[in-house]
């Protein structure tokens, strides 16, 4: 097999691994933070080469990679499996593992143990979990075990049934006030940053200005300290639905379909593999083989007598 050389850009010698401190310093100097989701080795490798600050192994994995209807069925073992692959691919980005449904809600002790698995087994540097004031004790316990926590407010997909669907949050004054309060409580509990999902832009901006820790928005306008998208949405790879807030930077599903059907046509037409995809045997060795086959009166060739 011929080996295709990588054309990826060279990784700078001076480039340092992104730390929690750096993420917080970026807020101080008003430098926007770029975060994307990844679930596998090749995507993490390319994303790291592209220079993303944070890679989130999101539980969106359940929908965009594993084909579930929601994020609810995702297990700790599935998350750990995919986090390990991402950690093998990314050397520089800050790696955050998303705690799946029921891995942190039952008891604080269980939450700390599960959070620990992301760092100990899966090579993550931090975890993310969903919810507001009701999660403050859990956040405190995980942080006091030495594990950085990213919070997640607004549209929290693990509460899809309670919220009545994947719909924007914080649109009335009362809900907006509660979100501001929750953000403050999570910061005090020790979160190093917060995801704000699908909330009004001006509320997200107010929350961001009100906090010392950085906010990462998804469907929350430009006033956040950073932005995140689900990578399959950005690449046009998940066609079941596309949220309004997504910007598609590529249309890979269409490109993949064209490539797969071109391959199928080539196979049916016997135009693949061509000569350049085929290993050849030298003429001398071929002659030797023919002689060996005839001189030993071998009956090895049962289907191709024309070779003799
Ligand atoms: O699971 C996920 O991908 C997320 C992002 C949308 C922030 O939580």
Give an overview in words.
By secondary structure, the chain is α/β, with parallel strands linked by helices. Helix content is 40%, strand content 12%. Strand 1 (33-37), helix 2 (41-50) and strand 2 form a beta-alpha-beta unit. It is elongated, with a radius of gyration of 26 Å. It binds 3-methyl-2-oxobutanoic acid (KIV). Residues 37, 56, 58-60, 98, 152, 195, 218, 228, 230 line the site of 3-methyl-2-oxobutanoic acid (KIV).
Would you summarize the structure shown here?
The protein is α/β, with parallel strands linked by helices.
SSE string? HEHEHHEHEHEHHEHEEHHH
Provide mean pLDDT, rounded: 94
Task: Name the shape in a single word.
Answer: elongated
Q: Please mark out the parts with pLDDT under 50 across 5 or more consecutive residues, or reply none.
A: 1-9
Secondary-structure-based class equals alpha/beta
Gyration radius over CA: 26 Å
Which small-molecule ligands are present, each listed once? 3-methyl-2-oxobutanoic acid
First-residue to last-residue Cα separation:
29 Å
What is the count of helical runs? 12
Q: Report the count of strand segments.
A: 8
Largest sheet report: 8 strands, parallel, barrel
Major sheet strand order: 1-2-3-4-5-6-7-8
**Strand composition percent:** 5-15%
- Summarize the amount of helix as a percent range: 40-55%
């Amino acid at each position: 097999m011929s080996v295709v050389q990588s054309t990826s850009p060279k990784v700078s010698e001076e480039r340092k691994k992104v730390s929690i401190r750096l993420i917080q310093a970026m807020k101080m100097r008003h430098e926007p933070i770029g975060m994307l989701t990844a679930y596998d080795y090749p995507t993490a490798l390319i994303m790291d080469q592209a220079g993303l600050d944070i890679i989130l192994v999101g539980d969106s994995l359940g929908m965009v990679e594993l084909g579930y209807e929601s994020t609810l069925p995702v297990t700790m073992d599935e998350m750990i499996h995919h986090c390990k692959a991402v950690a093998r691919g990314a050397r520089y980005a800050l790696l955050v593992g998303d705690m799946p449904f029921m891995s942190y809600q039952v008891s604080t002790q269980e939450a700390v143990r599960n959070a620990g698995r992301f760092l100990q087994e899966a090579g993550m540097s931090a975890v993310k979990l969903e919810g507001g004031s009701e999660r403050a004790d859990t956040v405190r316990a995980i942080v006091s075990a030495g594990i950085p926590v990213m919070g997640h407010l607004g549209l929290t997909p693990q509460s899809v049934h309670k919220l009545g669907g994947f719909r924007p949050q914080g649109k009335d004054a009362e809900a907006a006030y509660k979100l501001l309060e929750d953000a403050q409580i999570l910061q005090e509990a020790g979160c190093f940053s917060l995801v704000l999902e699908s909330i009004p832009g001006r509320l997200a901006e107010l929350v961001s200005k009100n906090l010392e820790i950085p906010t990462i928005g998804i469907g929350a306008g430009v006033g956040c300290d950073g932005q995140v998208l689900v990578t399959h949405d950005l690449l046009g790879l998940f066609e079941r639905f596309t949220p309004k807030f997504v910007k598609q930077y590529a249309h890979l599903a269409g490109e993949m379909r064209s490539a797969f059907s071109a391959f199928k046509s080539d196979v049916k037409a016997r135009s693949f593999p061509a000569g350049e995809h085929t290993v050849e045997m030298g003429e001398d060795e071929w002659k030797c083989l023919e002689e060996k086959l005839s001189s030993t009166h071998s009956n090895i060739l049962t289907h191709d007598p024309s070779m003799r």
